[in-house]
Amino acid sequence: MGIAVAVDFMRTDLVSADLASADAALDSQANRSERKIAKVVHRLLLDHSVDRTFDSQDDLRDVGLTSLDMASLVLSVEAEFDLMIPERDITPANFRSVASITSLVTRLRASTVRARPT
Hints:
Blueprint: H1 2-47, H2 60-63, H3 67-81, H4 98-115
């Protein structure tokens, strides 16, 4: 009985370590995605000679992007991450900030991974 309990604790520790490792990898991937998206936004701003700093939560319209820039932003995000954003996800809420775009990209990439055959 003592060995079985020890094995169960070891399994629990391994599962916990795997989950922590997976969470860290997702956080790291999200941070990389956020940096890439911020660069895309900065590039679009520079096209209008706007060189300013912004936070990930800032409303991109307030930062200086126009509605035409938002269309370019959708295309740029698709190209940058080699994914297609479904029409139903091209909403103002999903493209309001770098953080909201990062959440969208993270969700779409995760659903793409789950949809791939093994």
